[in-house]
Amino acid sequence: MGVALSRAAQWTTASAGAGTLEVTPLNESLLKEILRFVEQFDSRYPQEAGLVFKEPLQWETSLDPSDFKNEYDISGSTVKSHETDSDGRPLLQLSSSSVSVYSFSQLSKIVQLAKTKKLREVRACLEANRDPIAKILGPSFATVEGEDASVLRLLEKVTEDVSKETEVTMKLLLLIQQLDTQLLSNSLKQISREVRLSPDTVKNDVELLKRFCGEGEKRVLKS
User: Fold this and answer.
1) Using CA atoms, how far apart are residues 85 and 188, in angstroms rounded to an integer?
2) Could you give the CA distance from residue 133 to residue 189 in angstroms, rounded to a whole number?
3) What's the pLDDT tens digit per position in 51-107?
4) What's the DSSP call for residue 66?
5) What are the C-alpha distances in Å from 178 to residues 34, 109, 188, 191?
6) Which residue has the higher pLDDT, 18 or 189?
7) Could you tell me if residue 195 is inside a domain?
8) For the chain, how many structural domains are there in total?
9) Taking CA 133 as the corner, what is the angle to CA 56 and CA 22, rounded to the nearest 5 degrees?
10) What domain of life (predicted)?
């Protein structure tokens, strides 16, 4: 969900730097795994699901106010969850087509409400939040290339702060990292299945390379 998005997911390029997820078998597999994780999260890990994000995940949703049920206040094109943080701020807010989500509990609920549009919601969320971990746990946990030291940073914090919130945050980070490991492993398996060279494929590629390199004594490629 963090490292997997940056290393395994296949993104289109864009001039503004905001690419989209390509429509590929690999990305489809990643999206389904993430959907399964999010959809079951509230029931499997209720304590971690209630942890309030440092910043909301925001994206353009395909859901309408009419899709929301009893646990929400609906007023025209605006929806607010009954579930709030300690300051009374709703953990889900919808205004027109823009949704802001502050917990895994509400993420689980919104994909369940999406029904046949679940994968579309997950895709839209990830495309709008390229590094969701930084918003969920804070900028110090942003995904960076190279060694992932996020667990070490959190362990340092645990030694200084033994509060219940820090303990839950630690558990949430470990769950997310477990998902990342699973996503990367499945991606490697998917790639290995897709990239299998036959003798004919190799022969055709060599012949194509020879044509590009030219012929005669001045040719670039020599056998």
Assistant:
1) 39
2) 25
3) 999 999 999 999 999 999 889 999 999 999 999 999 999 999 999 999 999 999 999
4) G
5) 12, 22, 16, 20
6) 189
7) no
8) 1
9) 95
10) Eukaryota
- Nearest-angstrom CA–CA distance, 173 and 164: 14
Instruction: Flag whether 206 is in a domain.
Output: no
Residue 9: Cβ within 10 Å count: 20
79 residue type, one letter: V
Closest CA to 102 of 52, 161, 48: 52
The token duo for 217 is: 């004594």
pTM of the model: 0.78
Tell me the pLDDT band of 148, cut-offs 50, 70 and 90. low
Single-letter code of the amino acid located at 147: E
Q: Which amino acid is at 168?
A: V
Residue 28: inside a domain: yes
Nearest to 10 by CA among 197, 183, 132, 138: 183
Q: Which residues, 6 or more positions from 104, have their beta carbon under 8 angstroms from its beta carbon?
A: 38, 41, 42, 45, 48, 49, 50, 51, 172
Per the domain annotation, does 157 fall within a domain? yes
If one compares 14 and 66, the residue with the highest pLDDT of the two is: 66
Reading across the β-sheet that carries 92-95, which strands appear in turn? 57-60, 98-101, 92-95, 78-81, 72-75
Per-residue model confidence as pLDDT tens digits over 32-41: 999 999 999 9
Token couple for 32: 């389904």
β-partners of residue 93 are 80, 100
Phi, psi of 89 (to 5 degrees): -85, 130
Q: What is the residue range of 165's domain? A: 3-189
Using CA atoms in the order 52, 169, 171, 175, what is the torsion angle rounded to 10 degrees? 60
